Amino acid sequence: MKKIIGILTLTIICFICQAQKLPPVFDAKRSAEAQSTETVRKYLSPVRILWKSPNAATNIINAEKLLKQGDGQADLSGNDLCILQSDEKGKPGLLLDFGRELHGGLQLVTDQSRGGKPVRVRIRFGESASEAMSNIDTIKGATNDHAMRDMIMSLPWLGKLEIGNTGFRFVRIDLLDDNSQLKLKEARAIFVYRDIPYLGSFKCSDTLLNKIWLTGAYTVHLNMQDYLWDGIKRDRLVWVGDMHPETSTIAAVFGDNPVVSKSLDLARDITPLPDYMNGMVSYSMWWILIQRDWYMYTGNLKYLQQQKAYLVKLLNQYAVQVDANGSEKLDGAGRFLDWPSSENKPAIHAGLQAMLVMTLNAGAELCKILNDQATSQKCEAAVAKLKTNVPDASGSKQAAALLGLSGLLPAEKANDILSKEGIHNYSTFFGYYMLLTKAKAGDYQGGIDAIRNFWGPMLNLGATTFWEDFNIDWLPNASRIDELVPDGKKDIHGDYGAYCYKGFRHSLSHGWASGPTPWLTEYVLGVKIIAPGCKVIKIEPHLGDLSFAEGTYPTPYGIVKIKHVKQADGKVKTTINAPAEVKVVQ
């Protein structure tokens, strides 16, 4: 009956539109072409006012009214208004703190203005307080790249306006014109995100590790927009290599999500062979590695079969790029691991040698599943040649990690390189592979300590998401990102960075930095996928100096609940509750 009523209603609407020569409300063809959003919007009031202009005592009235929960509706009551007014003493401005990194924009609700005229304001978004206070110039790298974060706009008389689509925590509002007044009822953040549950969880006896796990999860969650981005302020693109830590995090936290396959398919469809994804020889390799890992997680054979034609051609393209000496000869200008290693060409060669081994091994596995024995054998033969040549890591922890993971270098020897000078020369992207290599070498405590010592300081500096890059050499005398930089301190955001992320261009919410989240799930909670689709998982915890660890892991068949408690004799007591379809081995 509801369906019949719906059809009748639609018919009546279309009839009225035709009678009045108006475009129809619904057109099946146009609707099929339209893009639907996969995100929702939530409105959040600021939690504090971090700064007011020096003339605030006379030029800003009732600023704290903006902290009250709003309803998004202008009205005629004239109550609870923040009033900004410019005069001969100056023009007012204030800095709002929304308490955590968000993706979205700003909603401003206004009251009546003088003469009913629009009021001009300048809006600046910032991932740090200092970024929101900055100007777009050549001094500290503030930009409008990828997302507009510094703009001038006019606000309506007794109305509402929404602006912005970026990553931010702070917003500065400045009144621009002389002898002007703005009566502001609300200034709320528009939080745009996927409304999905955190199915996976992690909790242990170290509250810092718990916060790090959740921060990695939240960082990736923010980047799960219509596609899977790497950064929500800058690099709002599908970077395939950067996706690998993100898809590992998604599996551990959110389970199967369509943003993964949608983004992988986009990268495939815009990259005709023999081109490489994102213009880098390694990024098409990451695409193959993600395909293998995602198939192991989801068990979705139908999706994997859809990749076969492209996958096989790509593998054949890689398999022939080994010279007579067993050395990779990957062509293309984009020979890249990550930015901190980008000037060490011998290390890049060693890393690509290892990545090619990892890629062709993964390709051989996938081709066997896809019943392409010829390509599988070609991959295996190329791997055999590559294993006859083991390049030196050239002092690079990035290269050492890949050499250890590929098996070209014993994991213990790779870990020796990783352990030199502790977490110096770690990077937020390849830090994940350094952790994986430590686990492969059996150095689980070393991995736990590295997470505490490298990712932990970002939280101590006020971060609510993990950054595009971080260097512990930045720490001495560094200011927090959630405060205005005190005299004599360094601006951790504006004063540091390199390559494409200098100063305020540096993204403070980058999904590739989420590696500790899947690592803690896999090696401390101990969840290892043995059979595609999580039909068989192995639970093998490594608590190190922790007294307990517990959590959940989302499988295609439901949630696995796990708890490990260290007993007085040092042995670990484990309790597991899994769906009937999931076989658990210990």
UniProtKB/TrEMBL annotation:
Q: Which Pfam families match?
A: Bac_rhamnosid6H, Bac_rhamnosid_C, Glyco_hydro_78_N
Which residue range or ranges hold the Glycosyl hydrolase family 78 alpha-rhamnosidase N-terminal domain? 91-183
Task: Tell me what organism the protein belongs to.
Answer: Mucilaginibacter gossypii
- Please state what the protein is called: Alpha-L-rhamnosidase
Can you give the residue ranges of the Alpha-L-rhamnosidase six-hairpin glycosidase domain? Answer: 199-389
What region holds the Alpha-L-rhamnosidase C-terminal domain? Answer: 526-583
Record-level GO BP terms:
carbohydrate metabolic process
Domain of life of the organism in this record?
Bacteria
